[in-house]
């Protein structure tokens, strides 16, 4: 029956609550008088029985005015006590006035105070009793899953209340690092020592752990996750405080554990003046604007009020996607979306001249190592000659700053992609060295960083997909390691380095410690609540399979060719001091390389790349697929 009442309309429920109060108020007054008189009825009060029926006539309007009936029973909080206090107190004052004006002398005056206490207990108690019944029915009716929360601070308590309202999860335990909280209960749920996670989770049959520590650092998250990893628990986390404050997410929107939490390196904080220096009030062009790095560059650029942003992209859909996104997120920033190739000098020059481009961020590149390894001519043309063509157009059009997005794979490269990016760096360094002779005023800056989380071709989305489909998770080698950074961090680095560069600079980021990819895969499996299938666990869920190094792939990546680095005004960004080729020597190599590429002679182009990029140690498995087919 009670469940049926819950399905009533809102107005019907309010009417039922008013009816309940209309019964409870006279009953409270009757109890007060009866208690005061010691259980003996005073016949002198019989003519005044109407006084027991009239309190609802003024109390209910008072409650309506105070908003008591607008409160939703299911989400009732402790503030309702204050509302009832005000309402009952006003009701008692009105009752006192009625008794005095009606000259009801037999009415015991002290019963008015007792009535106040009974009315508080009956009205307030009825609300909490109803709330308990509603939540009990919710718990019975809803297929909620028992979960535990790590973090019993304000965020943890808010998460518990949000989950109670959402009815999808049922919180059965808290864990917290603070010993002062151990043993306390919140809403009947005890706070436990984190060392008892396995024991408590098993006893409570909780199948998932929710991290509610939005203000904790990445390194603290990593410590917690490393401690929890052996338990093979599915773990999700509350978004960070910045996301909650900005309104981008709500407190009840739980996320999978970010890979950034597994890596444990706190993001490199940007310097606001550096971010705006080459952007604010300027015309900014991004090549490869639809790619993973290029699109994030665009998102960061529009935050700093450029005079105009020029989106330059070869792929039509990628250009449409970033243009449409910016139209929604930054409608006030003038922009133009242009299709074109970075090898098309006339197109590039006409664009830069027409819009008066002042800053260029060159993100257009082929970056997937095995793909470029088997398409060397296309890789050389796009990555090396494309960069040189863009740089020439920028020089000729008087662009102030040209920033190349490079890679750690350009350091002592073992693959074509890395070698093409190093050759791109060499072309810019030669142009800088030749500035005085050419009369150029363009500053050429290169930014070199490691793997970018979530970018196309990144290992992390691949691992997630493989785990979701039951495995196996493929790792190329047990000992392979990589540096990682987030896409926003990479974009901010590019922008800041461009602002610091004097010309010919190669900037690198202090990226912390490299990460072992096999360990990363293992953690991702464990924190999905699954077991790695290996010799020690033959009945595990997900196998980690080693496929062997891909053509041109290194075991370890480096960020510097030499050991000579200089500090910059940013504590986590360094300036590398590296060799470069003279303009005449480089032009000789580029001319021969262009002829080989024009003739689609992959073998000769490959050999010439080894001559111009001195450190290029080519892999034996490198082969052009077209040449092999022929």
From TrEMBL:
Alphabetical UniProt keywords: Membrane, Transmembrane, Transmembrane helix
Keyword Transmembrane helix: yes
Residue ranges of every copy of the Polysaccharide biosynthesis protein CapD-like domain listed in the record: 284-577
Organism superkingdom: Bacteria
Transmembrane segments: 14-35, 47-68, 80-104, 110-130
CDD domains per the UniProt record, alphabetical: UDP_invert_4-6DH_SDR_e
The family this protein is said to belong to: Belongs to the polysaccharide synthase family.
PANTHER family named among the record's database cross-references: POLYSACCHARIDE BIOSYNTHESIS PROTEIN EPSC-RELATED, UDP-N-ACETYLGLUCOSAMINE 4,6-DEHYDRATASE
Name of this chain's protein: Nucleoside-diphosphate sugar epimerase/dehydratase
Organism: Crenobacter oryzisoli
């Amino acid at each position: 029956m009670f469940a049926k009442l819950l399905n009533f309309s809102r107005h019907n429920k309010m009417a039922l609550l008013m009816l309940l109060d209309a019964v409870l108020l006279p009953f409270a007054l009757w109890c007060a008088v009866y208690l005061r008189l010691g259980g003996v009825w005073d016949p002198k009060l019989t003519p005044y029985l109407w006084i027991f029926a009239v309190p609802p006539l003024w109390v209910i309007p008072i409650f309506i005015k105070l908003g008591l009936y607008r409160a939703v029973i299911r989400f009732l909080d402790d503030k309702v006590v204050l509302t009832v206090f005000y309402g009952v107190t006003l009701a008692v004052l009105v009752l006192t006035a009625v008794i005095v004006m009606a000259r009801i002398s037999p009415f015991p005056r002290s019963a008015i105070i007792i009535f106040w206490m009974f009315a508080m207990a009956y009205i307030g108690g009825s609300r909490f009793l109803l709330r308990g019944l509603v939540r009990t029915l919710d718990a019975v009716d809803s297929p909620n899953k028992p979960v535990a929360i790590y973090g019993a601070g304000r965020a943890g308590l808010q998460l518990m209340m949000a989950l109670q309202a959402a009815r999808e999860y049922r919180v059965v335990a808290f864990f917290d690092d603070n010993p002062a909280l151990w043993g306390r209960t919140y809403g009947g749920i005890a706070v436990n020592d984190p060392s008892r996670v396995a024991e408590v989770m098993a006893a409570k049959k909780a199948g998932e752990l929710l991290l509610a520590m939005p203000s904790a650092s990445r390194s603290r998250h990593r410590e917690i996750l490393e401690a929890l990893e052996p338990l093979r628990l599915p773990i999700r986390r509350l978004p960070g405080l910045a996301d909650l404050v900005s309104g981008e997410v709500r407190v009840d929107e739980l996320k999978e554990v970010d890979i950034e939490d597994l890596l444990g390196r706190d993001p490199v904080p940007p310097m606001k003046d550096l971010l705006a220096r080459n952007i604010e009030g300027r015309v900014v062009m991004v090549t490869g604007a639809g790619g993973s790095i290029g699109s994030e560059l665009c998102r960061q650029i529009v935050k700093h009020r450029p005079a105009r942003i020029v989106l330059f992209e070869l792929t039509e859909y990628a250009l449409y996607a970033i243009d449409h996104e910016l139209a929604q997120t930054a409608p006030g920033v003038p922009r133009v979306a242009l299709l074109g190739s970075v090898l098309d000098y006339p197109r590039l020059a006409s664009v830069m001249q027409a819009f008066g481009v002042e800053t260029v961020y060159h993100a257009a590149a082929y970056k997937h190592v095995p793909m470029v390894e088997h398409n060397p001519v296309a890789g050389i043309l796009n990555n090396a000659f494309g960069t040189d063509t863009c740089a020439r157009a920028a020089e000729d059009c008087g662009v102030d700053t040209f920033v190349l997005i490079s890679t750690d794979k350009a350091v002592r490269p073992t693959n074509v992609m890395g070698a093409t990016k190093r050759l791109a760096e060499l072309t810019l360094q030669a142009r800088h060295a030749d500035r005085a002779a050419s009369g150029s005023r363009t500053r050429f800056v290169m930014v070199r960083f490691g793997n970018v989380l979530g970018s196309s071709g990144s290992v992390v989305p691949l691992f997630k997909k493989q785990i979701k489909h039951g495995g196996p998770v493929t790792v190329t080698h047990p000992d392979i390691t990589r540096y990682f950074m987030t896409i926003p961090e990479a974009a901010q680095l590019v922008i800041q380095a461009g602002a610091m560069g004097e010309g010919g600079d190669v900037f690198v980021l202090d990226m912390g410690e490299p990460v072992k990819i096999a360990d990363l895969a293992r953690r991702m499996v464990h924190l999905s609540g699954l077991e790695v299938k290996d010799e020690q666990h033959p009945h595990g869920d997900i196998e980690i399979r080693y496929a062997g190094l891909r053509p041109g792939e290194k075991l370890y990546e480096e960020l510097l060719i030499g050991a000579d680095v200089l500090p910059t005004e940013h504590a986590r960004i360094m300036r590398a001091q590296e060799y470069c080729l003279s303009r005449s020597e480089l032009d000789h190599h580029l001319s021969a390389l262009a002829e080989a590429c024009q003739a689609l002679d992959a073998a000769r182009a490959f050999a010439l790349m080894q001559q111009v990029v001195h450190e290029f140690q080519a892999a034996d498995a490198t082969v052009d697929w077209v040449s092999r087919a022929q």
